[in-house]
Specification:
The protein is mainly beta and about 475 residues long. Helices cover about 10% and strands about 40% of the residues. It is built from eight helices and 33 strands. The structure holds fe (ii) ion. Keywords: Cell membrane, Hydrolase, Iron, Isomerase, Lipoprotein, Membrane, Metal-binding, Palmitate, Sensory transduction, Vision.
């Protein structure tokens, strides 16, 4: 018997019937031989309603995010960072009645240990338990950079690993006063990839906003209309920034799908939103209270989604100026060396559909993170509304879809079969909200990851707001 703990967190206000931006709920389910029998504790219908500032505190690179890791037995199992996000807010921690169930041992202010002002909700966790994350750093004279921090696994001395946290490498910022919004990053066995987008935070506005003119977090965002996207790479083991100027056209980025090395190239797969305008500008309640036709109209003006593969050459020879440096046979992505020593990247399209996003990507993380892989699982957004679950073969572009009318899934979580021989040998879990279903408006869905066919569902007699990120923890 395996125990599953899903801790989904809704983050966009549009789906919350109480019009609160973040609703935190916890769901516990028990599965036997993949056929579900669930038990939802009574507290789950007492979901805490949390305000905008809590949400921002959880996601903003400026917030003081609190991270809880349990060493050594479980840290490597946190294949998504949701625990970090769930536990990142002291207030939400107090309100979440599941803390005992989740066995969160303590809350730690990482900023006290390393030079960062916040970190993302998407750390990478290696199989030995080593945690990597990226955060903004405001140094002397307001010098802004992005630091990669590393938290080692528990050692034999049993001392708190947080005390051994360090900054592995620092990425420079394209603008002295305006750090980019950061949501995730890429990690391979030997390299770290950071994608700096044109969605910028005006630091002067940010630091003065609440106290002086009562602005909110969104008022501090602006777009750099000319910088495009800068991709940065560092040597992970040497902790050395590789000063190679990778550039491409503008997009927003929240989630990396996966990153791996192949014969002198880095393959960087991303869920992008085309253009420099911030996607969040289209997620205001006013956009979402409209009828469906109006919702669609708003979404059509927003940056459009596309899952893309970028290929970054690591060995640069000036003699190749003007040429496409990508020699891998299986990709159409290009990287052209220009005379000013920048390398202009054009992507291979992995998935593209008008107003149809492949987002909230998950992979068989434990076995394939940072390595060549074939399958990604994603939440399908239709004009920003999550209405399906998708599987994508990143090599052939073949897709599989689970979809039912009036059903709104959460991020698909891949759980490998304990004796899996193949990458997609396992199940996909998602919490589905089915508001028209009367007494049982939500359920935990279990799909066969091979073909996204239903294995089982466990219905509950309570309302669960539509949610996004989640996690699986094997017990
Ligand atoms: Fe995220």
């Amino acid at each position: 018997m395996s125990a599953i703990v899903l801790t989904p967190a809704g983050v966009w206000s549009m789906y919350d019937p109480h019009q609160s931006v973040l609703t935190e709920i916890c769901v516990q389910a028990v599965i036997r031989n993949m056929f579900a029998k669930t038990s939802f504790p009574a507290w789950s219908n007492e979901a805490a309603l949390i305000g905008w500032d809590d949400f921002l505190e959880a996601i903003t690179p400026f917030s003081r995010t609190y991270h809880s890791y349990k060493y050594p037995a479980h840290s490597s199992d946190f294949h998504t960072p949701q625990l970090a996000l769930e536990s990142s807010n002291p207030r939400s921690g107090r309100k979440c009645p599941a803390r005992g169930t989740c066995h969160i041992p303590s809350q730690v202010d990482l900023c006290k240990y390393v030079s960062i002002n916040g970190v993302t909700a998407h750390p990478h966790i290696e199989n030995d338990g080593t945690v990597y994350n990226i955060g903004n750093c405001f140094g002397k004279n307001f010098a802004i950079a992005y630091n990669i921090v590393r938290i080692p696994p528990m050692q034999a001395d049993k001392k708190d690993p947080m005390n051994k946290s360090d900054v592995v490498v620092q990425f420079p910022c394209s603008d002295r006063f305006k750090p980019s919004y950061v949501h995730s990053f890429g990690l391979t066995p030997n390299y770290i990839v950071f994608v700096e987008t044109p969605v910028k935070i005006n630091l002067l506005k940010f630091l003065s906003s609440w106290s002086l003119w009562g602005a909110n977090y969104m008022d501090c965002f602006e777009s750099n209309e000319i910088m495009g996207v800068w991709l940065h790479v560092a040597d992970k083991k040497k902790g050395k920034y590789l000063n190679i100027k990778y550039r491409t056209s503008a997009f927003n980025l929240f989630h990396h799908i996966n990153t791996y090395e192949d014969n002198g190239f880095l393959i960087v797969d991303l869920c992008t939103w085309k253009g420099f305008e911030f996607v969040y500008n289209y997620l205001y309640l006013a956009n979402l209270r409209s009828n469906w036709e109006e919702v669609k109209k708003h979404a059509e003006k927003a940056p459009q989604p596309e899952a893309r593969r970028y290929v970054l050459p690591l060995n640069i020879d000036k003699a190749d100026t003007g040429k496409n440096l990508v020699t891998l046979p299986y990709t159409t992505a290009t990287a052209t060396l220009h005379s000013d020593e920048t390398i202009w990247l054009e992507p291979e399209i992995l998935f593209s559909g008008a107003r149809q996003a492949f987002e909230f990507p998950q992979i068989n993380y434990k076995k394939y993170a940072g390595k060549p892989y074939t399958y990604a699982y994603g939440l399908g957004l239709n004009h920003f509304v999550p209405d399906r679950l998708c599987k994508l073969n990143v090599k052939t572009k073949e897709t599989w879809v689970w979809q039912e009318p009036d059903s709104y899934p959460s991020e698909p979580i891949f759980v490998s079969h304990p004796d899996a021989l193949e990458e997609d040998d396992g199940v996909v879990l998602s919490v589905i909200v089915n508001p028209g279903a009367g007494q049982k408006p939500a359920y935990l869905l279990i799909l066969n990851a091979k073909d996204m066919s239903e294995v089982a569902r466990a219905e509950v007699e309570m309302n669960i707001p539509v949610t996004f990120h989640g996690m699986f923890k094997r017990s």
